Amino acid sequence: MKNFIQRAITGVIFVAVLIGCIIGGPLPFGILFCLISALATVEFCQLMNQQQGVHINRNICTLGSITLFLCFFFYGMNPAETNIFIPYLAILIYLFISELYLKKENPINNWAYAMFSQLYVALPFALLNVLAFQTIPTDTVSQYLFIFPLSIFIFNWMNDTGAYCTGVLFGKHPLFKRISPKKSWEGSIGGAVFCMAAAFALAHFFPIYSTGEWIGLSLTVVVFGTWGDLTESLMKRQLGIKDSGNILPGHGGILDRFDSAMLAIPAAVVYLFALSIF
Questions:
Q1: In the chain, what are the domain boundaries?
Q2: C-alpha–C-alpha distance, residues 278 and 275, integer Å
Q3: Per-residue pLDDT tens for 96-123?
């Protein structure tokens, strides 16, 4: 009972802070997700450094995540400033060159895991800026639209809620037994139904896209969010751990809370770009 109360309180605070900072405008949005990106990278590096023959530079990888997020953030506000990514490129170059002098046991492992920290952790959070900052076709100035990054988390939460409720009641056929035995096809379908219901609501209150396009975004998040969840589950099984950390009482680590978003965010960016093209 104590653990349930702790988990509930943490969950409520977590959701309130997330929604508040996203709705609050560019500054609180930027501060929150820059911090989350940094904490997630620290967590990732600590997990990877527990593996034999792996010693990646946690501080430089974290600096890279912060820099990449800020590059996308300032680029979102001013798309004309393409040279803003130069500092991040310098950090990537440093991560490669530094291994020439550190004389570590396995530099290839260090390179691989350092780059993985940027691809798996830093890039998805940075891409939230692509969703948040949109340019009106008749203008060259980007404006902050909170509904797009917020919708990704709404769909993820609805997917988790629907999958859990439906899975408990009707779940019989395992979705991916080797990695996550508790997930079922029935739960996944239930999660998709919950997400489509949320898409109808968003289409009503935010008619930026049609109902069909909102539903398409919700299903994109369902599919890739589920894969993101399974990806982190596979990583934790490989590492032999239950949670990625303990920074959120009752909920584990940052990676545990954003596992679905790691693939859902890039997929959503691709989906929205596809809409603008076609």
A1: 25-134, 146-278
A2: 5
A3: 999 999 888 889 999 999 999 999 999 9
